[in-house]
Specification:
- By secondary structure, the chain is an alpha+beta fold.
- Helices cover about 25% and strands about 15% of the residues.
- The chain has one domain: Jelly Rolls.
- The strands form 4 sheets. The protein has an 8-stranded mixed sheet. Strands 1-12-11-14-9 form a 5-stranded mixed sheet, with no helix packed on it.
- Helix 3 packs across helix 7 and helix 4 crosses helix 7.
Length: about 425
Amino acid sequence: MGLLSRTLWPLRQSAIKTKFHMSTAAGVATSPAQATSHPRTSPPSPSPNTLNPLSKTMPPGFKASVAHLPTFPLPPTITSSASDHALGNALVDAWRRDGIIQIAMDSTQRQLWADAKAASRAFFGRPHAEKAACVDSQSYAGYIASGEEITDGIVDYSEIFTITKDLGVEDPRVRAGWPGHGPCPWPDAGMKGVMKRFEGRMGEEGEKLLTLAELGLGVPEGALTGYTRDGWHHTRVLRFPPRNATNGKGKKGRGIGSHTDYGLLVIAAQDEVGGLFIRRPNQDEKFANWEKSAAGLNEDDDSWVYVPPVDGVHTVILGDMMQYLTRNYLTATPHKVGLNKRERFAIAYFHEPSFQAVLKPLEGGCGGMAQQSADIEGVHYGTHITNMFMRNYPDRITTRRLVAENRYSLLKRPELRTMCATTA
């Protein structure tokens, strides 16, 4: 794969206007017309899967087109320069066209990913009893066994270690019983150190991407990043068991069913095996996961796009709150995971608003979006994500305690709804 070298970015604005080429997963340049085409218009049909070398890693039993995605390197800092504005515009255009982008890892990120992948393999290789002991009754952090997670009423076969905000029992929010707040039940200090370093660097990338998105959307500084002060960032460390030709419904085995994610950005790294499918933005598909669950959406139709694994990149998709904030100018990306012939490892980092944030649609920008109405109630992120956890893990000890102690009612309290965006 030929990634852009760091010397090619930032680009001069004149160069961007005349010849904006980006390398792709297939090593094919993206033309200026492709880079700026309307995202709701379907791109030309790709070659049949049998002729496309990128389709070789696609899990058996699936029919899908294959993504050819541009890869963007990020600058060390965002300065609101002309080149940063151009990059922000390019990111927004790519999200609107493809629903997903690729970000080039730097050398430090490559090493962090290698370390995190090794720690993941080591953890999932432990005896089941050791893994099953890594749970907490107050937070949704810790181990999730294969078959425990439910999407649209059907079990998924992913095996997961979830890392939420790691709060000690003396933290005031934990003592007050806030839903989902509590310790992360690490199996050992070694895994904790590796994953914390990985998560910290992903958080830096998330802030850069949100800052660039603000530039690309034409909204004030802080319109997005103002919500991420004390963000409810978390990580899912994932293992997908091999199922060979058993991809299908329910007990036949699937990785993760069709769904959208709940926050702002999902930044993921996947190994070489492959299994991720997404849906491109489509003007005719209507969903609002904060109002009604989008789980199971179009699970079985033919409009899915396979995202082949590419060495040295993160994939970035958008979550529900980005869709809500931009009034559907950007939309959350439906995605699912199929089981492959070999076990597969991935890590997904979620760059999120504060648990206490009440989000309201952005003012201006976003392609001429209408001004915000003062009477919009907004979406409370803490309630939105708590609903998701309870829906996905109805029998988990955390859900049972949350219900038994009536913790859900705390979400209405003013002290859990104290944050709005701060714009400069």
